[in-house]
Specification:
heterodimer; A: 327 residues; mainly alpha; 2 strands; 1% strand; B: 244 residues; 6-stranded mixed sheet; 5-stranded antiparallel sheet; 10 helices; 11 strands; globular
Amino acid sequence: MMDTDFANRRRRDLIVAFCLAAIAAIVPLFVKDVYVQNIMVLTLMWGALSQSWNILSGYCGQISLGHALYFGLGAYTTTLLFTKFGVLPWFGMLGGGVISAVIAMGLGYPCFRLRGHYFAIATIVIAEIGLLLFHNWDWAGAALGITIPMSGDSWLKFQFARSKLPYFYFALALACVAWFVTWWLEDSKWGYWWRAVKDNPEAAESLGVVVFNSKMGAAAVSAFLVAVGGGFYAQFVSYIDPESVMGFQFSLLMALPAVLGGIGTLWGPMLGAVILIPVTELTRSFIGGSGRGVDLIVYGGLIIAISLARPQGLVGLFSPKRKEAVR
Amino acid sequence: MTAPLLETRGVWQRFGGLVANSDVSISIGRGEIVGLIGPNGAGKSTLFNLIAGVLPPTQGSIWFDGEDVTALPAAERCVRGVGRTFQVVKSFETMSVIDNVIVGALVRNTVMRIARRKAHEVLEFCGLGARVNVLASDLVPSEKRRLEVARALATEPKLLLLDEVLTGLTPIEAQTGVELVRKVRASGVTVLMVEHVMEIVMPLVDRAIVLDLGKVLVEGKPGDVVRDPKVITAYLGDRHAVGA
């Protein structure tokens, strides 16, 4: 009987997600304003990125503040493969994902021996090293960056000068994929292993969980998806330099929606992104170009408010579990 | 005679200058309930950790089910059939009771539906059937102890290591705990338990091993052990000599 309850809940999540995606898909057909469409693209992209970050940091509990590295690697791989070798961005995004996953595991090998804050600090430092390397790598454009040459609208090259719609649908697809991967992993051996590792690695080990491998798996999946997002972002803005795809703020921007919405939850990252991204984009445009950083102040304020009022994230407002636990 | 399920051969564990276990050689037969007793600091928990694979011994070897497992990490020993609980409970606090147990069940069953069913069965067996969807952090202490046992049982162990599961419980809770341990043994699992509450342990175990200062002091039938003069001076105190 409990089994069917559980299966029903899983199915309900899937149906809700499908309906939300379907609604999202028709919104831009009515909302023609380019500025608003731009915000929608960014919201979906940050939702997807945060969802991916959530796999390593939320479910597996390894707080990474260096995911900008994978975002940047995705952006650079896609762009370099296209501009230097003529490889289509579709393959570039996949290639960037694979490279990032491999690098994430390579970095995880020493770093996953660190616990808690020490791990988080290591991720910050490593991402900074990556940033500096790209700053000084002449072949990859160094500090000047790379402009992706535009040659007219093309699905093949995934570039569109006039319409935002293709980008919107790609971002929506990416968000759906990231959500679905999370949904699928949540009720898998990996999902249970990750949560066990987060809560108590020693107990997990005693139950046959190979803690180190679990962390490596989470890092690989997380880095892969984030890098695909980075590749997409490069196509979307068609110009990249180290600061604009690998800066520290990107690491924060990936973490914040998940923290706001509910870290380690299925719906938290997307919910957080839907609130955060429009709010910050709007503040940015109201304050104007001189108010650089105000959006981050708003971010910070929201995070402080949420951690005081509802530390488990906004998603707790919708969760029937809370009522049960209160008794 | 068949080979013992667990054997430690001349096991030493040193922490810097401190010798926690010195030349400990014990063996546990299949289907036994063995009690490991001794005063605080006798090296019981260290021996438990060595058997469970949390740390490798400084010297000596550990044999489980006819195989040298000395070099194997904890997760591998769990796969071989060693289940354990922790003296200080280590529940997965943000997970529900059933999810806690599923983690254990996944060692033997990778199909989620089967692991989930297995977890339900084990929780029913351990008397937590009514609490499956509660968060582990919302359980009362005695339930948390049961959850530890359930989680370990879900891994289908051949040997279950119980680290003070009956300590700190009310007499009634302890009594249901004793019944649970008996049920576990009846289901074919060998049990090695560290325990302090002599009144409860002695009637339960087939054999008792007394550790003192890192060494095996005495081992034998519980009735004989409590009358042993060495045990009385080292652990029980003269007061017990009268009663025994």
